[in-house]
Specification:
By secondary structure, this protein is an alpha+beta fold. The protein folds into two domains: 15-74, Structural Genomics Hypothetical 15.5 Kd Protein In mrcA-pckA Intergenic Region, Chain A; 89-290, 2-Layer Sandwich (Pseudouridine synthase). Helix content is 14%, strand content 29%. The protein has helices at 27-34, 40-48, 119-125, 155-163, 236-243; strands at 15-18, 52-54, 71-74, 89-93, 97-102, 133-134, 143-149, 168-175, 185-193, 200-203, 209-219, 222-229, 271-279, 286-290. Strands 4, 5, 6, 7, 8, 9, 10, 11, 12, 13 and 14 form an eleven-stranded mixed β-sheet that branches. The protein has a three-stranded antiparallel β-sheet with strand order 1-3-2. The chain is globular, with a radius of gyration of 22 Å. The relative contact order is 0.13.
C-alpha cells in the first residue's frame, strides 16, 4: 500500500487520488473537473498551505503540470458537518483487533458529507491506534458491532474470515407483524444497484444474496426478528425484509424512498448488528462479541 507523505491530523487521514491519462494541463485543472462541487478557491487555499502533495511529498501549486500515472494526496474538508450526538463504545481490544459498539447515524468511514463525525476518525483522533482499518462495514443508519484491525501483520488473517464468509453476523430488527408468513424464513434473491444510486433492488436471475429470518417475539406495535446475513450485499437485510412484507421501522429507503430530510435522532432505523461470531485465526478461540444496543420503539 502506498504510504501517504502527509500525516494524520486530528484523526483525519489524507485522501489519495491516482492521476489517469487525460487532457489536463495542470493538476489544478484535473481537480476542478474531477470535483466540481469543490470551490477553486478551496483548492488554491489548500495548495498555499502545502496540503496538496505528490507521492514524494512535493507540494503542488496551481501551475504544477499534470503528470499521469502518479498519486496525489490532500486533506478533504466538509462544510457544516452535522454533529452526531451519540457515542461509540469499546467492548474489546487486544494486540490485533478492536471491537466497537457503534451507535445509529454514525458512518463507519468518511464519505460524502461526513468526515470527522465518523467512527474511524473518532477512534483515530485518540492517537492510540495509528494503523486502524475496519474489517467490514455496516450502514450509517444501522447500530451494532464493528470489527477493526490495528495490527498490519495480522490484518490479512482477520480480513480472510469476512472474505470467506467465516463470520456469523447476527442482526435484530423491529418491523411489523405479518401472520401470512411462516418462520423461520429464508430469502434468496439477486440484488443489484438501483435508482437513485444509493438504493439497491431485486431483479430476476441467479441469487447473490441470502438472509435467514426468524420471528422472536411480539412487541408493542410490531415484532422483533432475528436475522443472519449469509452473504453481505449492500442493504441486503433492509431490502429482504421489505420484500417479504415486513419493512424495518423507520427505514427511509425501503420499500419506498421517502423525501430526504434531516436525521431524526429520536427515531433511528430499528436495525442492529447484535453479534459477530467467529473462530479467532490467531488463537483458535471461539469469539462472540455482542452489542448492548436497544431497539425499542
Amino acid at each position: 500500500m502506498l504510504r501517504s507523505p502527509l500525516p494524520t491530523v486530528d484523526g483525519v487521514s489524507p485522501s489519495c487520488k491516482f492521476l489517469p491519462a487525460g487532457h489536463w494541463k495542470t493538476v489544478l485543472d484535473f481537480l476542478k473537473e474531477r470535483y466540481p462541487k469543490v470551490l477553486v478557491s478551496d483548492w488554491l487555499s489548500r495548495m498555499k498551505k502545502g496540503e496538496v502533495v505528490d507521492e514524494n511529498g512535493r507540494a503542488l501549486n496551481p501551475d504544477t503540470p499534470y503528470c499521469a500515472g502518479i498519486h496525489i494526496f490532500y486533506y478533504r474538508e466538509v462544510d457544516s458537518e452535522i454533529k452526531i450526538p451519540f457515542l461509540e463504545r469499546i467492548i474489546h481490544e487486544d494486540e490485533h483487533i478492536l471491537v466497537i459498539d457503534k451507535p445509529h447515524f454514525l458512518p463507519v468511514t468518511p464519505s460524502g458529507r461526513f468526515l470527522r463525525e465518523t467512527l474511524l476518525v473518532r477512534l483515530k483522533k485518540n492517537g492510540k491506534w495509528k494503523n486502524l482499518v475496519p474489517l467490514h462495514r455496516i450502514d450509517r443508519e444501522t447500530a451494532g458491532i464493528v470489527l477493526f484491525s490495528h495490527n498490519p501483520a495480522t490484518r490479512g488473517k482477520y480480513a480472510f474470515l469476512f472474505q470467506s464468509r467465516m463470520v456469523t453476523k447476527v442482526y435484530e430488527a423491529l418491523a411489523p407483524s405479518n401472520s401470512d408468513l411462516s418462520f423461520p424464513l429464508k430469502r434468496r434473491s439477486r440484488i443489484v444497484r438501483g435508482e437513485p444510486f444509493f438504493r439497491m433492488k431485486e431483479v430476476e436471475g441467479i441469487s447473490n444474496a441470502e438472509t435467514d429470518i426468524s420471528f422472536v417475539e411480539e412487541m408493542a406495535g410490531g415484532a422483533l426478528y432475528k436475522l443472519q446475513s449469509v452473504t453481505g450485499k449492500k442493504h441486503q437485510i433492509r431490502l429482504h425484509l421489505a420484500s417479504v412484507g415486513i419493512p424495518i421501522f423507520n427505514d427511509r429507503l425501503y420499500p419506498d424512498l421517502r423525501d430526504k430530510t434531516n436525521d431524526d435522532f429520536f427515531n433511528p432505523l430499528r436495525l442492529l448488528v447484535r453479534a459477530l461470531i467467529f473462530k479467532d485465526p490467531i488463537t483458535g478461540q471461539a469469539r462472540c462479541f455482542g452489542s448492548a444496543g436497544a431497539l425499542e420503539q
